[in-house]
Amino acid sequence: xxxxxxxxxxxxxxxxxxxxxxxIDGEPNAVEAKLLDMMFAEMGQxxxxxxxxxxxLDIKGTIQFFLDTNRVVKNIVFLNLxxxxxxxxxxxxSEHLFLEEIQRQFExxxxxxxxxxxIIYEERDIxxxxxxxxxx
Length: 136
What we know:
- By secondary structure, the protein is an all-alpha fold.
- The chain is 74% helix and 0% strand.
């Protein structure tokens, strides 16, 4: 969501965080893989072609990279990482602890977190309403 607003380097670094987040609980399941594919599509074919699909060995360095970016970039990254934690409806402690660490380091307030999480839930609700509407 809004990943197209990131520049090339931010997109690649975001993918390092996303792959790390997905790998925390083992191999990606089908739902996580589908979400990752959608994120790649949003970022463009050039990013897909360039990305190595390997888990970053320097995740702290990747987080550090984002500490020097503006608030909009941090919010987009956090929003999309939060979306990953919620996509499969399974609570994973490691994913949530990592997301909390990102929130702390990006200095995202509790209010901003609620707002961003609300956007994810609203998007899910709209998709569910659309699914129901077409099935009636």
